[in-house]
Write a structure and sequence with these properties.
alpha/beta; 2 domains; six-stranded mixed β-sheet; Rossmann fold; DNA_bd_Ku70/Ku80; about 25% helix; Ku70, Chain: A, Domain 2; 19 strands; double-stranded DNA binding; extended; DNA-binding
């Protein structure tokens, strides 16, 4: 399911945009449930709400549409001669926004009719074909959420499958029950399987659902052979995965520079930020409380003398001043410019080399780690940089470098460590402290008092506590496996912000 969530829910912002249609069943059977159980309609609605929330905060250019079937009315361009009735195109393809979230919350309500989910699928295919014509999309996808509890005609099933393949449309199903009828250890099941299906809870799937499930299997295996069934999920598993907001994908920004060693050796390099602190995007705007319009709020700053009349002073007639004791020392723009450090521009200059063991982990500073590669089109630079990387690795050494991002940046001192992987090799740059950055603390010596010496039972208790909290475990081959995966740990600050 994790692979599914990445494919469906984690569309890349740096790549060509994708078009996706959410197709939700709102027919009256979706509101049926046992007492104390949440109806499939509410689960499906939560799924699309959470998905749209993720897309809004992902800040990408993907377009999302919404089609509802089982509605009391009909609104689609294929509805003629009594066909494709009770199917409503609620939202045409466009970038998701807060307005769509509000519409889902207030306007998507259970319908009093039933509609063929295959007809709804055809409407979605037509919507994608019509509204992506002349545009470039990386991927076309339809997500269908239903309980399959409706009479479905399979006369056109083969034609629908052929048209899906021809148009390059991928398909995913979300159901209230698992497709294989088994309770899965990974949480993809909603219960003991089809024996607890939503059509007739506790009595198994009804005939319509059984027929619909076979048609789903036929469609998905025809599109993606055996892997097609991996694209059929349950509502509960989707809600669990979607409860964590995805990170915003950033397009890597190349930093071209020259690695210099002394005055005669220069290697062309390109740096990329591998790790950097992600800041919360503060895009909130102050608006007038009644009109909710930003233009109705005007800001005005006035400078006044600290006298009885509060005499107004023009901004051009003010300069900065710093308090020194009881006096205020004026500090003009000219003084500020003269005090600034004059940089020579971007720089990645090797000052020397040292053993890696002499650079301690607690000395790492800054908010980023930079991976340094040779440019793709420069074979000479690749050979030279590779030689340097392998030499540093074999000698267990690191390069101490002077780093400056550009002319406006203050220089840093840092360490460049060799990094050799199966598919690539590079230098890893980490900032190191200057003398002023170090903090020295003096603490009193701990007294050798037998009263505070721990007993054997206390030591054993602490050892057991540490063992129980170890984030490293052994696999079947006895190899140590790190179970702390930073790439899977979301920042709770971002999660709280997005959930608000």
């Amino acid at each position: 399911m994790l692979r599914c969530c990445v494919r469906l829910m984690d569309l890349k912002g740096g790549k060509p945009k994708s078009a996706l249609v959410l197709c939700m069943d709102v027919g009256f059977s979706m509101s049926n449930s046992e007492p104390g159980q949440e109806p499939p309609f509410e689960q499906a609605k939560k799924v699309i709400q959470k998905f749209v929330q993720r897309q809004v905060f992902a800040e990408n250019k993907d377009e999302v549409g919404l089609v509802l079937f089982g509605t009391d009315g009909t609104k689609n361009r294929l509805a003629e001669g009594g066909q494709y009735e009770n199917i409503t195109v609620h939202r045409h393809l466009m970038m998701p926004d807060f307005e769509l979230l509000e519409e889902i919350a207030s306007e998507v309500q259970p319908g009093g009719q039933q509609a063929d989910w295959l007809d709804a699928l055809v409407v979605c295919m037509d919507l994608l074909k019509d509204e992506t014509m002349g545009k470039k999309f990386e991927r076309l996808n339809i997500v269908l959420l239903t309980d399959l509890n409706v009479q479905t005609s399979e006369d056109q099933l083969d034609i629908i499958i052929q048209n899906l393949k021809k148009a390059g449309i991928t398909l995913q199903f979300f159901l209230p029950f698992p497709v294989d009828g088994e309770d899965r250890a990974d949480g993809r099941g909603d219960g003991p399987g089809p024996s607890a299906g939503p059509g007739r809870p506790g009595k198994g799937l009804n005939r319509q659902q059984t027929q619909g499930l076979e048609m789903v299997k036929q469609i998905m295996t025809s599109l993606e052979e055996e892997e097609g069934l991996e694209e059929v999920y349950t509502f509960s598993d989707a809600l669990e995965k979607l409860s964590i907001f995805k990170r915003i994908d950033r397009r890597p920004m190349a930093w071209p520079c020259q690695l210099t060693i002394g005055s005669s050796l220069t290697i062309r390099i390109v740096g990329y930020k591998a790790v950097t602190e992600e800041k919360v995007k503060k895009s909130w705007a102050i608006v007038e409380a009644q009109s909710h319009q930003r233009d109705d709020v005007k800001r005005e700053t006035v400078y006044c003398l600290n006298d009885d009349n509060e005499t107004e002073v023009q901004k051009d007639d003010t300069i900065q001043g710093f308090r020194y004791g009881s006096d205020i020392v004026p500090f003009s723009k000219v003084d500020e410019d003269q005090m600034k450090y004059k940089s020579d521009g971007k720089c990645f200059s090797v000052l020397g080399f040292t053993k890696q063991e002499l650079i301690h982990r607690h000395q790492f500073m800054g908010t980023q780690v930079v991976k340094v590669f040779a440019p793709r089109d420069d074979e000479h630079a690749a050979v030279a940089l590779s030689a340097l990387i392998h030499a540093l690795d074999s000698l267990k050494m690191a390069a101490i470098v002077r780093y400056a991002y550009d002319r406006r940046s203050n220089p840093q001192v840092g360490a460049a460590f060799p990094c050799i992987k199966e598919k690539y090799e590079c230098l890893l740059y980490v900032q190191l402290p200057f003398m002023e950055d170090l903090r020295q603390f003096t603490f009193p010596v701990l007294e050798n008092n037998k009263k505070f010496t721990p007993s054997e039972s206390q030591l054993s208790a602490v050892d057991a506590l540490i063992d129980s909290m170890m984030l490293v475990e052994k696999d079947e081959d006895g190899e140590s496996v790190d179970i702390l995966k930073v790439k899977h740990i979301p920042n709770p600050q971002f999660q709280r912000l997005f959930q608000a």
